[in-house]
Amino acid sequence: MRVISFKKVKTRKSHQCWGCTKEIPIGIEVDRTINIDGNSIGTAYWCPQCAVLWGKLSMEDQSDVFTFGEFAQYCKDTGLAPLMGRGNEKV
Ligand SMILES: [Zn+2]
Question: Is residue 54 part of a domain?
């Protein structure tokens, strides 16, 4: 996955966070990335929590491919956010 665009946007409809799959409510400021993955292009929205965690990764780790929701598991496995949950689990 290669990030080609990174932008702070205010959500106008609800999205699911790419990192943890939690619902991102309308009207908050989030990070939006546009990625190229193979031949496909995708847009991902990151909730504020995931955006902070993402920022702690090294450049090398950031170029890793994270599928939808996989970032939460990664944070758990690496101890970055051991209590991080998927879906609507409380963190
Ligand atoms: Zn998230």
Answer: yes
